[in-house]
Write a structure and sequence with these properties.
By secondary structure, the chain is an all-alpha fold. The protein is 65% helix and 0% strand. The chain is elongated. It starts with a helix and ends in a 6-residue tail after the last helix.
Length: 57
């Protein structure tokens, strides 16, 4: 993701926060559990690429 698209994403997120369009209990900011889930998905992708096996995410 380029810095320009990242800025655009952040502006869109801010708009959603201001207008109240985000789902309840969603602040749009990644937290530690989100990072753990992302890390696990990336690890599964790396394993699938290395072994040639299909994985279900």
């Amino acid at each position: 993701m380029t810095s320009t698209s990242n800025v655009g994403h952040q502006c869109a997120l801010l708009r959603e926060q201001i207008t109240g369009r985000l789902a309840p209990e969603t602040d749009g900011v990644p937290d530690f559990p989100h990072a753990v889930r992302r890390h696990r998905v990336l690890e599964q992708i790396r394993d699938a690429a290395r072994t040639g096996r299909k994985v279900t995410l």
